[in-house]
Design goal:
82% of the residues lie in helices and 0% in strands. By secondary structure, the chain is mainly alpha-helical. The chain has a single domain, classed as Ferritin, core subunit, four-helix bundle (Ferritin, Up-down Bundle). The protein is elongated, with a radius of gyration of 17 Å. The N and C termini lie far apart (51 Å).
Length: 171
């Protein structure tokens, strides 16, 4: 569908986000399984729960709009997940041996933060559209998700800086 106005673009972007969250729900358990640091495993598990809530909020917005959430495939999330899966596969054969667990954890955080930064940008955009369109309730739901995405990014940064990256310097 070619958007002809902000309302149509808004719906298109929401569908893209719904697809992104759906893809992420499938990817996060793989990242959690590959992580070794307990705090990182916990962060991935918590984010999976939040991601389900984010998708539920989007579904709620689609009900308000009287629209279906399907119809878009988020190519960006597909690429980010493909890149994360490539890292996971390659970390098992880094220099002919398994990569040290600490290095894998640091790489998983890098991959997860790429996802978070994409989601922060996407939710910021649709929240702005909702505001412009006068959709206050939708804007508030999107803003709540945006703040949660920022919080996940901060948690990942903190884990990296305090625990994971220092351990990866000389595993």
């Amino acid at each position: 569908m070619k958007p002809e106005n902000l309302e149509q673009l808004y719906v298109m972007q929401l569908r893209d986000l719904f697809s992104a969250e759906t893809q992420l729900i499938d990817a996060l358990p793989i990242m959690e399984a590959k992580a070794t640091h307990p705090a990182l495993k916990d962060a991935f598990r918590l984010h999976l729960d939040q991601t389900r809530t984010h998708r539920d909020r989007l579904d709620q917005i689609f009900q308000m709009l009287n629209k279906r959430p399907g119809g878009e495939k988020c190519q960006a999330m597909e690429g980010l997940i493909k890149e994360a899966n490539h890292f996971i596969k390659e970390s098992g054969t880094l220099f002919g041996t398994d990569a040290p667990a600490e290095v894998v954890d640091a790489g998983l955080i890098a991959q997860a933060q790429r996802v978070e930064h994409y989601e922060i940008a996407a939710y910021g955009t649709v929240a702005s559209y909702a505001k412009t369109l006068g959709r206050t309730q939708e804007k508030n739901l999107l803003g709540k998700t945006l703040e949660e995405e920022k919080s996940v990014d901060q948690t990942l940064s903190s884990l990296a800086e305090r625990l994971v990256n220092p351990a990866a310097v000389t595993p």
